[in-house]
Design goal:
The chain is α/β, with parallel strands linked by helices. It folds into 3 domains: 53 residues, N-terminal domain of TfIIb; 273 residues, Rossmann fold (3-Layer(aba) Sandwich); 193 residues, Dimethylsulfoxide Reductase, domain 2. Helix content is 34%, strand content 16%. The chain is built from 23 helices and 25 strands. The chain has a 7-stranded mixed sheet with strand order 5-4-18-17-16-6-7, with helices on both faces. Strand 6, helix 3 and strand 7 form a beta-alpha-beta unit. The longest helix is centred in the first third of the chain and has 19 residues. The mean pLDDT is 95. The protein binds iron/sulfur cluster. Iron/sulfur cluster binds next to helix 1 and helix 7.
């Protein structure tokens, strides 16, 4: 007998709803888009459509293992708890760390964060989401006083202009791209501008493509900010009533706003720059969508604020069809931010920088050993493993030996680390190969909990099948270790629903004007019973007494979460990219995702049809550079950077910039 279960796709941050028709006897599932889910209204991309091909057991990790041998759960959990406790006793609490993933469900993330920051008492808990959107988090906090995405997907349909910055949306957020394409078909006035050094598939719907020089985004957006001011196109009422810092920011922007200077720095045609500026200036309903090309940068936070400055200056924020909008990479990058899954965050959008927040969370968790300062972010965390100051690390649901920058160093770090624990649903990855203890986690089709997508929408991910082998939920694994470490009462969790209720209650705890108002508040869900939790329909936070069914947008009428209640303009002084071409390294290597694979392919590569799109690593080279370096179409190139070398198949194409 089959049954259809509503769940969500586990890949990108679009967070598409899925109708999964499950045959439990044959362990097969038929996948369709959920027409009722507001993220996708029935659409799915190639990856989501192929989910049914990834639920087999062949590649799964099915039993706990310690030092290469199968073992039972009790032995494995006790070994992890004992070794973490021994390491802390011998070397101090900063000698242990957890590295999580945007693949974790919110409930998993909550337990990890509570264990590390609340009870072990250091904040060495970071996540691979650090790589995809921590710049957006920092940019939001600088401008808004909170990590708030002001708009929603529906704005795509209201907009008259959509600017896509550093985002190959067609490949990386395909269903959002489909929505934008459909919006453009329905509204011939909708202009699409793509700002990206490469001419990608996203440019298929672009009215204008600006192939700017890598890393020059702040120059381009400072120029736009200045253009708006010089041409009298600012919203002075909004600036005066709802913002601060305008004068310093515009002075800095105007210092770098000469058109020829912008053209030279960005390597763009001046006419194209002016055309973009005019379109932006004269289109009220404009959205700026940005992704990894903005975020994954040494100047990522400045890029985010350079974009936000232009929206604050025109008051185009939080209203239908307008605003800055960060496209998150992972299915639960946003959920991780909600619980405090980054090393510099505390919990529920509270911070270490605020002593009252630290005391508040300690009160809620009833702990006297809470961390009082931020911990090591992802790259530094593995540097600390490498230099031996972190001696026990627990990696959950991610493959950093492949996915982190300077991956060879990460591999060396883990090779020499005295104690490496990996929880994963896949048995053989480059990271599981280096684990002393392997803990089998449930995979997408077995997990049960919630995720939050790019537009702050919380959706349920539901179990389709019984767990494979001895696989367990990540929250259960962590709670069991926490109890064995001595934190029995605080981690006595019996279900994902129980954890969600606690997370929701913390979001509303002492969250008011007197004690400090916070944007993230889902206290309206804190008393859900198990049945209601199971039946939870997708909702956008905040969900509280004022917004019982959620809220689509923030900040149309101000109400920022800064001390003054006003948004902050940030003065952005463009800096030269850290890695510019040199005699030794004369070319710029720009990396990107491919359409049909996800992360390090540990799951998507299980679907045969997904491997047909781009079956091997490739490098795209401009014809002039190909000639200069003797490269031919379909030949092999050896790429060498300051970080290492690799071989890739050559594709000669003028979609790449010339040297
Ligand atoms: S990968 Fe992203 S766009 Fe594709 S179905 Fe999944 S959530 Fe939707």
């Amino acid at each position: 007998m089959t049954v259809t279960i509503k769940t969500t796709c586990p890949y990108c941050g679009v967070g598409c709803g899925v109708n999964a028709t499950v045959d439990d006897v044959t362990r097969t599932v038929k996948i369709q888009g959920d027409k009722a889910h507001p993220a996708n209204y029935g659409r799915l991309c190639s990856k989501g459509s192929a989910l049914g091909e990834t639920v087999g057991l062949a590649e799964r990790l099915l039993t706990p293992k310690a030092y290469g041998q199968d073992t039972d759960w009790d032995t494995a959990l006790s070994l992890v708890a004992r070794t973490f406790n021994d390491t802390i006793k011998r070397y101090g609490k900063h000698s242990v760390a957890i590295y999580g993933s945007g693949q974790l469900l919110t409930e998993d993330y909550y337990v990890a964060n509570k264990l590390m920051k609340g009870f072990i008492g250091n904040a060495n808990l970071d996540t691979n989401s650090r790589l995809c959107m921590s710049s957006s988090v920092a940019g939001h906090k600088r401008a808004f006083g909170s990590d708030t995405v002001p708009g929603c997907y529906e704005d795509f349909e209201y907009a008259d202009m959509i600017v896509l910055i550093g985002s190959n949306t067609a490949w990386c957020h395909p269903v959002s791209f489909q929505r934008i394409r459909a919006a453009k078909e329905a509204n011939p006035n909708l202009k699409v501008v793509v700002i990206d050094p490469r001419r990608t598939a996203t440019c298929d719907i672009a009215d204008l493509h600006l192939p700017l020089a890598s890393g020059s985004d702040t120059v381009l957006f400072n120029g736009l900010f200045a253009f708006l001011e010089v041409n009298g196109l600012l919203n002075h009422g909004y600036i005066a009533e709802h913002t601060e810092g305008f004068s310093g920011a515009i002075t800095t922007a105007k210092a770098h706003a000469d058109l020829m200077h912008i053209s030279e720095r960005c390597l763009l045609n001046p006419d194209d720059i002016i055309l973009f500026y005019r379109w932006f200036a004269h289109t009220e309903k404009v959205m700026s969508l940005y992704s990894q090309g903005v975020n994954q940068s040494t100047a990522g936070t400045d890029k985010v604020n350079a974009i936000i400055n232009c929206h604050l200056a025109t008051g185009r924020i939080g209203k239908p069809g307008m605003g800055p909008f960060s496209l998150t990479g992972q299915p639960n990058a946003m959920g991780g931010r909600e619980v405090g899954g980054l090393a510099h965050q505390l919990a529920a959008h509270m911070d270490f920088s605020n002593k009252e927040d630290v005391e508040r969370v300690a009160r809620f968790w009833q702990t006297d050993s809470i961390a009082d300062a931020g911990g090591l972010p992802a790259v530094s965390l593995f540097d600390a493993v490498y230099d031996g100051s972190v001696k026990a690390v627990w990696i959950m649901g991610t493959n950093p030996v492949v996915s982190l920058p300077n991956a060879d160093k990460v591999k060396q770090a883990l090779k020499h680390c005295p104690f490496v624990v990996v929880s994963d649903c896949i048995a053989q990855t480059d990271t599981t190969a280096l684990a002393h203890v392997l803990l089998p986690a449930q995979g997408w089709s077995e997990k049960n909990g919630t995720v939050t997508n790019s537009e702050r929408r919380i959706s349920r991910q539901r179990s389709l099948f019984k767990p494979a082998g001895q696989a367990k939920p990540d929250w259960w694994i962590m709670a069991q270790v926490a109890q064995r470490m001595g934190y029995k009462d605080a981690f006595n969790y019996q279900s994902a629903a129980q954890i969600f209720r606690e997370h929701a209650a913390l979001s509303g705890f002492e969250n008011n004007r007197e004690q400090g108002l916070r944007d993230f508040d889902i206290s309206g869900l804190a008393t859900l019973n198990d049945v209601d939790y199971d039946a939870l329909t997708p909702m956008q936070w905040p969900i509280n007494a004022d917004n019982p069914t959620g809220k689509a947008r923030f900040f149309a009428d101000g109400g920022y979460y800064t001390a003054s209640g006003k948004a902050q303009f940030i003065a952005i002084k463009p800096t030269a990219p850290i890695h510019s071409p040199s005699n030794d390294y004369p070319l710029i290597l720009n990396t990107g995702r491919i359409r049909d694979q996800w992360h390090t392919m540990t799951r998507t590569a299980l679907a045969a049809k997904l491997n047909q799109h781009k079956p091997e690593p490739f490098v795209e080279v401009h014809p002039n550079d190909g000639q200069r370096y003797g490269l031919v179409e379909q030949g092999l190139a050896k790429l060498t950077t300051t970080w290492g070398s690799m071989y890739a198949r050559v594709h000669i194409t003028s979609t790449q910039k010339n040297r």
